[in-house]
Amino acid sequence: MHPCVRFFCVLKGGVVRECGCLQSHVKVSFEMPEYTSKVTGLGTLRLLEAVRSAGLTKETRIYQASTSELFGRVQESPQSETTPFYPRSPYGIAKLYAYWTVVNYRESYGMFCVNGILFNHESPRRGKTFVTRKITRAVAQIVKGVQDSLVLGHLDSWRDWGHAKDYVKVMWMMLQQESPQDFVIATGEQHSVREFCEIAFAFAGRHIKWEGEGLNEKGVDKETGKELISVSPVYFRPAEVESLLGDASKAKKLLGWEPTTTFYELVYDMLRSSFEEVGLTLPSFDECMRRVSLSPADGRVQKA
Where is the NAD(P)-binding domain positioned along the sequence (predicted)? Predict the structure, then answer.
């Protein structure tokens, strides 16, 4: 008997949240495509098959953490549950396999399994190699004086960023329904990597001025002229996903879910944690917002 099947035989059903995988980094998936496909795609199949083989299809509810990377080269904006998929990375392709596997097991075996198509959700616990955490950690270390500058890839990638605490709540809500359904979870607001940088640095009292274009573009401190941000092709994806913006109307209507954390509050929460990691204290949220108002971000906000 497979170890997964033995596990569920002992467990005798319950709630299973498949909230992640051993490889969830999009850029890394281009470097490790086969490994990504096994743990991200086949991992979901093995979980579902273990539950089925253990005879626990009626006693078990399964949540599968899907992703906005399914939409990739977006076919419409904003993206909802009915938007066609067009993944642009091995990670997105593996997640597409996992998505349809969940749908197939639900329809074939009557299992209570759902896909949560979650757009980017961040928190201070985000991995250090992901761009949002990379930015806040760099800002804190630059202020501390232990890092000179921040090197990034595509500054004009647009994302729908929310706080992980709001998204974890809705995962639970999906599993409380009478019948299983898939949901897009998003804030309906879109911001760029460039804007995230501007706000994080402004919160820290450093205001960014952009100079140059393309690979020669850099962000400098308006007051001192010191280079704080530069661009490197090392961080470009072979196939970029330029823009993602979610429409969570279905979740709002059927689940009564609403995001409770604003984009500025998200950036503040992550930056405050990064400051604490290096022994610094970030001013209050109100004071940080005052700093932003003195030097508004060059970015834009789009509403779904």
Answer: 23-270
The model's pLDDT over 216-234, given as tens digits with 9 standing for 90+, comes to 999 999 999 999 999 999 9
Q: What is the CA radius of gyration of the chain?
A: 21
CATH number (3.30.70.3180, 3.90.25.10, 3.10.450.50, 3.30.390.50) of 125-160+190-242+261-303 reads: 3.90.25.10
Residue 91 among the catalytic residues: yes
CA 120 remoteness from chain centre = 2
The reply to whether 67 belongs to the active site is: yes
Residue 235 catalytic? no
Q: What is the pLDDT of residues 230-261, one digit of tens each?
A: 999 999 988 899 999 999 999 999 999 999 99
Given 44, 57, 60, 67, the catalytic residue = 67
Nearest alpha carbon to residue 102 among 116, 91, 119: 116
The model carries a pTM of: 0.89
Query: Where does 3-118 sit in CATH, by number?
Result: 3.40.50.720
Catalytic residue among 18, 57, 63, 91: 91
